[in-house]
Specification:
about 140 residues, alpha+beta, three-stranded antiparallel β-sheet
């Protein structure tokens, strides 16, 4: 069980942030945070891993509680990029997961699928064959 004030197990998106310098030395120093996170909270979080001015952080792992196909988090994404993505994913409701996954399958790009979902630029016919849709 993860027990820190920066993590909520029910959040749509969480990332494991680690101290790169310690990782290179063979030590895994880091913890989970949920996104989006306030800048001041992120700064407080980094302090739990040492002096933030003396190390680089990286994203070691991530998980989403929605089951989003195509979601990829880069190891060296900035906190601003992580927060933007976290904020967008935070707004996805459970009933939209099938739609965004279908959009990802059709478009082959998670960012474009998310853009289409947010714009409402799609029609989703759940559990229907192409013949039924054509009728």
């Amino acid at each position: 069980m993860i027990n820190n004030k920066f993590y909520n197990e029910k959040a749509n998106l969480s990332v494991y942030i680690a101290n790169l310098e310690e990782y290179v030395k063979g030590n895994l120093v880091g913890d989970w945070i949920s996104l989006p996170i306030e800048k001041s909270d992120f700064e407080d979080f980094l302090k739990t891993m040492g002096n933030p001015e003396e190390f680089t952080f990286f994203t070691h792992d991530y998980k989403d509680n929605l089951g989003l196909d195509g979601l990829k988090i880069g190891e060296y994404m900035s906190i601003e990029e992580l927060n933007e993505l976290g904020g967008r994913i935070e707004n996805i409701v459970t009933c939209e997961v099938d739609a965004i996954n279908a959009l990802y399958e059709a478009l082959g790009d998670f960012e474009r699928a998310l853009d289409s979902l947010e714009a409402g630029d799609y029609a989703f016919y759940k559990n229907m064959t192409m013949e039924e849709v054509a009728q």
